Amino acid sequence: MTQDSKPVLPASSKAGAPPYRPPQVQALGQWRAVTLAISVPVLPGSVGGCWARTRRRAAMTGKAAGVLALALLVGCAPAPAPAPTPLAPVGLVEISFDGLGSTQASSQVRPLALKENSAGLDLSPLSVSVTDVGVRGSGGTRYITATYRVRNAASDGTPAPSARSNLTLLAAAVAGNVDSTALRGMTTFSGAPVPTAVARTVLPTHALDYQPASDRVSPVSGGEDLQVFLESEVVPGNLTRGGVPAAAYSDLGVTTVFPYGYVVRTPAGGRTLAANPAAGQYDGRVAISVRVPLQANDNAQTPTQGSQRDPWAFKMTFLVVEDPTTRVTQSPEEQVLPDSQVVARGVAAGASAVNILPGSAYAAQASLPSRRVCQVRVADLAGAAGATYLVNSCP
Asked: Is 267 exposed, middle or buried (0-12, 13-18, 19+ CB in 10 A)?
C-alpha cells in the first residue's frame, strides 16, 4: 500500500458483519503466523533515496503484524519542514548606480526614511566596477558591482549597542519601482527611460570579473556576497521586529520582498560586526552585484546603437535585515569551480550550510552541508503567473 492510500478491508469487516480476522497461513505451536507483504516508502533522509520502495515480508501473529504495519507507516510519514528562522528588519535603503558604461561610474546610498523603517544602516561607498563581456546582441553582458563599507550603526550614524551578525540587504520592491522589481529610475545616457522590460533582465550575482585564461567570468575573491533564501523565509510573518511578525509587507514600507540579497562580511570573511563602533569605524564590507544584457544594435529602434539604450543609471531598493542563520551561497558562475572554494568561504563565515542552485554538482557534504534552493524570484509577487526568476526548477 502506498503512503497516501488506505487499506481496503474485506466486506466482512464492515459495520454489522463479524469482525475481520487475518488469514491463518499456518500454525506454529500456540502462535498463528501470518505472512504480510508491506510496501514501505523510503522518504528523504532514509537509506535508499526519496522515492525508493521496498517490500518486506514478516511471519508473525496477526496482532503483531498490524502493529508493525502501523509503525512502518507512521515511521515513514514525512517529517514536517522546519520553521524558518525569523529575519529582523532594521531599515530601508536605496542604492544608486550612475555613469555605467563610462570611466566614471559611481554609486551612492540613500536611506528611505519611512516611518515603518527609520533606523537603516551606515553604508559608505568604496568602489564601483563595470565589466562588459561578450558580443553585444549575442550574449554580451555587463557586470556591475558597487562595494560599500558597512558600520554597525543606523543611517544617521548612531552606533548599534550590540553586535550584529549576517546583516543582509534583501532586495525589495517599493511603490514606484519598475515593473514590480527592486529597480527604479532606470535611464539611458540621454536621460530617457529604459524600456520597462529591461528591468527584469537585471539579475543578481556575486562580484564577477573576466578571466582571459578560462574565457569566462569568475567570482572576485571577497566579493561573493550574493545570498539566496526560500520564499517561506521572506513572507511577512517571518519578518519580525521586537519579536512581533509583520502582518503584511506594507507594515515594512514595501510591496514585496524578494528571496535574494547581499550579506555583509568582515574583511577576514566573518559575519559579525562589533557593538558600539567608533566614528569612522567601518568593520564590514558588502558587494552589490548584478548583470544585465548589453542591448543589441537595432535599426528598427531609436537610437539604433545598443550602447545608447543600455541602462546608464538605476537605483535598487533593499530591506536591511539581521539573519540569525549563517549560510553562504554558491552562485551559478561558481558551479564550475572546485567545491573547496565555497567550503573555505563557509568555514571563514562560520556557516552551517551552503545554498546550492539548480545545476550544482556540489559534493562536499561532509565538509559543509548543503540545502537546495530551486527558485529565486526577482520580479512580481510570489506565485504570480508572470513572475520572473533567477532560477526556477522546483519539482
From this structure: exposed
